[in-house]
Amino acid sequence: MFTKHLSKPYYLEQLESASRRIAMTHHKHSEIEHWRKQLTANHYGEKKILPLLTHLSSKESRILFDLRLPLPDHSYCQIDVLIVTRNFALILEVNHSPLPSLAKDYRFMHVNERMEARMPDPLSQAELQAHQLTYWWARSGFPIIPINYLVVLTSSASYSQPSYESDSQIVHLDQLLSSFQSLDHAYTSSLLKESELNLLCDKLIDENAPYKPCILDRFRLKKTDILQGVICPECDALPMKRVHGRWYCKVCHQTSRNAHVEALKDYQFLFGERITNQRACAFLKLDSSTAALQILNEVAFEKSGVNKTRYYVLNE
What global pTM score does this model have? Predict the structure, then answer.
């Protein structure tokens, strides 16, 4: 069964907001786009693998997407997909890059909240994840089971590369089910009770620590680097102007009732989930604090404080 479902990574949402809100002429825009494209490709690869994994979804297996487990040395074990059964575990390192050779591919890992490090080829990364997960597992107190790993190539451009065929731990998308079945037939001893399997998955989810950096610190941006205003959903122009309860675009002349929702999502991913009336006025480029108050009361799910100290908590 799917114990931890696939969702868009928070960091990818942050990068998308930063890409929209940083001028293309800004010296950091290309770097932000580089990481956005990498994460988008990886997320797309995970979505391609999803239909196949439904065939493994049963009482006998647990499937968890996008785990990031803290380790004692302050690094993290990052796993695209983890399949756990009572007999064995399988790490899937999803690769959607159309690579001429695996040795030239570089992926990344989040070392801490302000730093990323490049990892060499995905096979080495999957091997490292297996070592890290084994260490995490031993500390968790659960019975040890064999931990295997596969690199799954999801790009059709990788299908003609003969260099992949020599390594059984690198499989194409259409080979994944047969590879899993081979492992399932090889490991016949149940080392975990079903209750232990459930408790283990609960612990994996409890300890999962999604990467949510301060995006401005991560790319050494200033608050003044962020473009403010509501972006037109039709033509991407900004800022839209609030007129009689609607947002009006002076470029394409389209109107919208709720264009501010995406703008406030950008604010959350860039600056955090707390916002004041004053900051909402500035970010949305509103002339009226009353209009900002009305909007915040509609979109915020929590508020705290009184008068000038009042802040609102935005929905994720």
Answer: 0.86
